[in-house]
């Protein structure tokens, strides 16, 4: 999906900032350079068009992530958490790796995303020659709840000897965590980590401003689960 243009983003900035005034934070950040993060439900879904906005509520922090011990995920997921945590001014988002998958909010696995039945929305991304990624969201038919856990998949497409594999796995993990924290669309700018086939290794300024905006925007999807 394409992101809204920069001109429209700047026009929306004030409106979105005002919408976030209801947050209990000390102040709502004013941001002027961000992209559309909300997931647009396609026509024919049963309820018409809708823009789904999600962020983790404060009473669900830190988000609990179970990580498969494979493909350096045990290293890459904590690094991704750190990269996104730095985007926020007031600790609006945080996550921690946990040992019990049955109580996890997010599950990170190595390999291709399987064709499992509960998936309602699959956010494909990072379709690079070296590796690929996907994040599965189980959103209820009424579009009001996100059934947990969110599932992230990091899939190597090349052999371990590929010199670009390690960096691809690392940036793809951070990209997929961006989806898991609430950026449910891709940026149209290749200089952003949330571009559909990212090349940068860390969230850009636009990525971080987008994350800040979405965490000061009233969501219409709430998490339910363990």
Architecture overview:
The chain has a single domain, classed as Collagenase (Catalytic Domain). With 226 residues, it is α/β, with parallel strands linked by helices. The N terminus is likely disordered. Helix 2 packs across helix 3. The chain contains four helices and nine strands; from the N terminus they run αβββαβββββααβ.
For the structure shown, list the relevant keywords.
two-stranded antiparallel ribbon, disordered N terminus, 4 helices, 226 residues, single chain, 9 strands, Collagenase (Catalytic Domain), seven-stranded mixed beta sheet, globular, alpha/beta
The whole-angstrom Rg is 17 Å
Q: Give the class-level CATH name.
A: Alpha Beta
Count of strand segments: 9
Portion of residues in beta strands equals 15-25%
CATH superfamily: Collagenase (Catalytic Domain)
CATH topology: Collagenase (Catalytic Domain)
> What overall geometry do the principal axes of the alpha carbons give?
globular
How many individual domains?
Answer: 1
> End-to-end span in angstroms?
31 Å
**H/E element string?**
HEEEHEEEEEHHE
* Share of residues in helices: 10-25%
Query: Major sheet, described briefly?
Result: 7 strands, mixed
Mean pLDDT across residues:
84
CATH architecture annotation name? 3-Layer(aba) Sandwich
Structural class by SSE content: alpha/beta
Helix count? Answer: 4
Oligomer state equals single chain
Query: Stretches where pLDDT falls below 50 for ≥5 residues?
Result: 1-26
